[in-house]
Design brief:
The protein has one helix and ten strands, in the order βββββαβββββ. It is mainly beta. It has a single domain, classed as Lipocalin, CATH 2.40.128.110.
């Protein structure tokens, strides 16, 4: 099903364009977003994140070398889609800071490292509430919202891609929407300063998500 306007309600992988191709072989560029119709061919209503088909990862550079990756195991999100104008849709999402999972155990088989990270992130819910949605292409959008983390709230941005839709008989025959998104924040803006001597301040957020119509 063709999607003519994008809304993500959470958040991210970025579109990777091919490089090194000749000018003749390059695909035609998308026209400006304003040239696309506003309405979308999808049912209006509320869509809930399917946590079994979603991942929220974060990446941070260690010692100026490789990027360390972890995930949040507990997550939730709600998208209220306005198909007449998706930029007026509503989206909010949350993860539990204490559900960080690095896959690293201490000598006693405990997840003490995960617990330390959870405390550094504030030890509570991390929430994102979309405030503006800017269309950037036929299947892409830039979503800006309020990110509440470690007791502080500041703006954050996700570059989102609509990946597709369809009805799933295994999920009650309901409509399912798929999205990916990518964003980067400076963790020090939220007062998260632990391990600054050997980890970077930029944190990449990578999201893959499926939403099921309620």
């Amino acid at each position: 099903m063709r999607w003519s306007a994008l809304i993500l309600a959470l958040a991210a992988t970025a579109l990777l364009g091919a490089t090194g191709a000749s000018a003749q072989s390059d695909p035609p560029a998308d026209p400006p977003a304003a040239d696309y119709p506003i309405a979308v061919d999808l049912p209006a209503g509320t869509y809930q994140l399917d946590p079994r088909h979603a991942s929220v990862l974060f990446r941070i550079q260690h010692g100026g070398l490789a990027w360390f990756t972890a995930r949040f195991d507990t997550k939730a999100a709600t998208l209220t889609l306005n198909p007449e104008d998706p930029t007026q849709s509503q989206f909010n999402a949350s993860v539990d800071a204490t559900s960080v999972n690095t896959g690293i155990l201490n000598n006693q088989g405990e997840r003490s490292f995960d617990q330390s990270i959870g405390r550094a992130l504030g030890g509570g819910p991390i929430t994102f509430t979309a405030t503006t949605i800017e269309r950037t292409g036929q299947n892409t959008a830039r979503i800006t919202g309020d990110l509440a983390l470690n007791g502080q709230t500041h703006p954050a941005t996700l570059d989102a891609t609509f990946e597709g839709s369809g009805r799933d008989i295994l999920r009650g025959g309901n409509m399912v929407l798929g999205f990916s998104a990518l964003g980067t924040i400076d963790r020090t803006e939220w007062g998260v300063n632990d391990w600054r001597a050997f980890t970077g301040k930029d944190v990449q957020i990578v999201i893959e998500a499926e939403f099921v119509r309620s």
